[in-house]
Design brief:
Layout: H1 2-31, H2 37-49, H3 51-61, H4 76-95, H5 100-110
Helix pairs in contact: 1-2, 2-3, 4-5
Length: 114
């Protein structure tokens, strides 16, 4: 009896994991802005008929998304100026010279995240 229960639980756990992988793959595909509708449809068909091999190929061939702020290419003097500005901004915030909202807005602007 216990052995059968363990078997059922393992089967449900594995099935749920596999379904979750499908969902993640299709949601990721739908959210991509770098693919045309035709390419998304082609990938969806490959993932559907190729099953988990198609999903593995999709994730292996998918380009790595660029991290926000990492696309900025600053020279050393520019980077030093940004660090100095961030330190000054932090000090002003700690002193209470600027509000939390202004601090976050200026920080995002300095880091190129706006």
């Amino acid at each position: 009896m216990a052995e059968q229960t363990i078997r059922v639980l393992m089967t449900v756990g594995i099935a749920a994991s596999l379904v979750l992988i499908w969902i993640v793959a299709y949601v990721d595909l739908a959210r991509r802005k770098d693919l045309s509708i035709i390419r998304k449809v082609v990938w969806a068909v490959i993932m559907f008929f190729g099953a988990y091999i198609g999903i593995a190929a999709y994730f292996i061939l998918r380009p790595v998304p660029e991290v926000m702020g990492k696309g900025l290419h600053h020279t050393t003097p520019e980077s030093s100026e940004i660090v100095n500005a961030l330190e000054t901004l932090h000090e002003d915030h700690a002193d209470g010279s600027i509000s939390d909202a202004d601090y976050l807005e200026q920080k995002r602007s300095l880091l190129g995240l706006t």
